[in-house]
Specification:
It is a single chain. The chain is mostly helical. The chain has five helices and two strands; from the N terminus they run αααααββ. Strands 1-2 form a two-stranded antiparallel ribbon. A hairpin with a 2-residue loop joins β1 and β2. The longest helix is centred in the first third of the chain and has 38 residues.
């Protein structure tokens, strides 16, 4: 049951990641074309260079952050790199995805604010064609779409963070305790620590040892309380009737003719 849940969680997480990667690949392709189209435009005005640089930065920086996430995220999600810094790397990837979601919204807003200027580039001049303008608008649409996929990926990474590891049922570990494969990473005096074996309960439990028996002077098992007619310990003698003769507790005392 646990393996099925773990496999299902990993499949959902990786399915969302592959969908995000496909959208990212389309965005990178159309964003490169849009950046080329913007670069060939010579804007006129006192702030023409600033305006053009802002549009190019919105597109180029979007390409960079999307590419960096596609390179970093699968390495961390596989859970086989970065040694004892797994939690730090996974948290950095999660924060990176959330930051990219915000940046893609800003990139789309910057391009959308220049929609009227972009539309005049092919209606009032021949600098752009209808295809160039459509590519520009598609870049804006995919900026917003990637922002949504980044948010969905963040939610899935939070929910299924314990479903990652080297195998389908292995949880996400970072240290040597509970993970023998990384037990040698911590060293004392140059040598790695041996893995800590997992203790398993023994069932059924072993029988308890028998209680030790108490014997008297004649190697007979004693009894308590003493039988009627037997003496209690006292009189300086061994256990017996009246403290005179030897014998076990409760042994009847035999009358001697010398004492009569």
């Amino acid at each position: 049951m646990g393996c099925k849940e773990s496999c299902g969680g990993k499949q959902i997480l990786w399915g969302v990641w592959f969908f995000h990667a496909a959208c990212s690949a389309v965005y990178i392709a159309i964003a490169i074309v849009t950046a080329i189209n913007i670069d060939k435009v010579n804007f006129v005005g006192p702030d023409a260079d600033v305006y053009k640089t802002g549009l190019l930065a919105a597109v180029v920086m979007g390409i960079l952050v999307v590419c960096l996430f596609l390179i970093l995220s699968p390495v961390v999600m596989l859970g086989r790199v970065f040694g004892n810094q797994m939690e730090l790397s996974y948290g950095f990837t999660l924060g990176f995805a959330f930051g990219d979601a915000i940046f893609m919204i800003l990139s789309g807003l910057v391009l959308q604010a220049s929609n009227s200027s972009a539309k005049r580039l092919y209606t009032e001049s021949t600098i752009w064609t209808q295809s160039d303008y459509d590519t520009f608008m598609t870049t804006i649409a995919f900026s917003y779409m990637l922002s949504g996929t980044f948010v969905i990926l963040c939610v899935c990474m939070i929910i299924f963070r314990h479903r990652l590891g080297g195998s389908s049922g292995e949880p996400y570990h970072s240290g040597a305790v509970g993970n023998p494969s990384k037990a040698g990473s911590a060293s004392v005096g140059g040598g790695g620590l041996p893995p800590i074996p997992a203790s398993e309960p023994i069932w059924p439990p072993p029988p308890a040892p028998p209680a030790p028996s108490v014997t008297g002077g004649s190697n007979l098992q004693s009894s308590w309380p003493p039988a009627s007619g037997g003496g209690a310990p006292g009189g300086g003698g061994a256990p017996g009737g009246g403290g005179g003769g030897g014998g076990a507790w409760g042994a009847p005392r035999r009358a001697d003719s010398d004492e009569l």
